Amino acid sequence: MDKVKPLTIGIIALLLILLTFNFIPKHSNPQNKTLQQNLQDTENLHDSPKAHQSNATLATNNAELIQKNINFLKEHLEQIKKDSIIPNSPQGLNQNSTPRETTPHEAKQTIQESQRQELLAPSPKLDSNFCVRNKPQLAIIIDDVSNFAQYQAIKEIPFKLTPSLFPKSKVNPDTPKIAKIAPFYMIHLPLEALNFHQKEHKWLFAGDSKDKMESYIATIKRDFPNLSHINNHTGSKFTQNLESMSLLLETLNNHHINFIDSRTIATTKTNSAYAKSPYIAFNPCQQKPLERDVFLDNVLDIPKITEQLIQAVQIAKQKGYAIAIGHPHKATLLALKNATDYLQKSGVELVYINEIITP
Length: 359
Description:
Radius of gyration: 36 Å
Low-confidence stretches: 21-56, 79-108, 114-128
Distance between the termini: 64 Å
Helix content: 40-55%
Largest sheet: 9 strands, parallel
CATH topology of the domain at 137-355: TIM Barrel
Order of helices and strands: HHHHEHEHEHEHEHEEHEHHE
Oligomer: single chain
Strand content: 5-15%
Number of helices: 12
Mean pLDDT: 79
C-alpha cells in the first residue's frame, strides 16, 4: 500500500475525533448507564432555548466541517499519494524508508562536494586542442605535508602551491582528510634512500616485488581516490634501480597515476625505465614525463631560497614551464610570501602540477 504524507494522517485523525464527538449513540449498554446519567444531568443545567439553539448550530457546523474534510480527501488523496512516491521508483516508498527533505546545509554540502570533485578530477578529460599556454608556467610543489597546520600555512600563500601529502599512516592519519578539502594535491611516496631512513613511514625498497608495490599503491588509491600524480620522497637508491623503477611505473600506470621524478639523485633511472614501461599521458596536456627542475630550500636561508625561485622562473621562460620543490619550513613559506609581488610581475603563471602543459 502506498504511504501518504503526515498531512493525510492528521486529517484522518481529525475526522475521527469529529465523528466521535458528534455521533455518540443515544442508546448504550447498562454498563454506561451512570455515564449517560451524568451526561444528562450536565445537559439539564444548560437546558434552555439558547442552549438548544447553540447545540444545533454547533452540530450543523461540525457536520459541515466533516463534509468539507471528506470532500478534501476525495479531491486531494490521489495527489498526496503521488507526492509521497520516490522518483524513479515504480513501487513508491518501501516499508523501511521515510521521506525527508534536503536541508539547506545538506544542499550546500552537495554543491561544495560537486565543485570539489570537479577541481580534483584529473585533466585527462580535457581535449588536447585546449592545451595551449598563454604564459610560461611555474608549478611549485611543497613536499612532506603531513598535518592540517602545514596545509593551512600553505593556503595562506596567495598563489597556487601543490601540496604533496604523505600517504596515510599512524603518524600521518589526517592526510586523506586534507586531500578532501584541497583544490589539488599529490602524494609524496617514500622510496628507499642510500643513507637515510625514517621508520615512521611505509617504504618501497629497491628489489621489492611487484605484488608488494601493487598492494601499497592500491591502498594509497583507496585512501586518495582522486589521486593523479605522485612524486618520490627521498629515493636516491630506489630510483637508481632500473628494474624497481620499471615495476613502479607499471604499477602506477595500472592505477592511472603519473610519476613526477623529484630527482633526489642525478643518476636516476626513471627516464630509462620508461623504455620498459612506456609513459602513458593520462593528462592529454602532459605528453612527456615531468621532473623537478629546482630545489628551493636545500639551504634554509630566505635570500638563497629567493635566488632559487628566480632560477625557476628563468627556466620556465626558457622551456615553457618549470617545476620547483620546497618544504613547509617557515623560511621557505616566508620567502614565497615575500616573493608574491615579484611572481605577479615575472610574466609566468603559477599553476598546480596537473595544469602543466608540456610541448
